[in-house]
Amino acid sequence: MVTNKSTKLSACCVFLALVAGCSSDARFHEIQAARLAECKFKADKEYAECVEQQNDNFEEFKKQQVQQP
What we know:
The protein has helices at 2-21, 25-39, 44-67.
């Protein structure tokens, strides 16, 4: 069960990273909001990890935005 959740979270993060690479700020925030909504259904430790991952994804997205011409 824990492996299944980890796999699902990893898949979501990969999907989010791929979509973030080719979408606008508004689309990224829409997707991030949906992912954060999914985080609220997790246990405390998993919730904290999920939110941290979303923050990391946002920072990576911002770096990509700055690097694009």
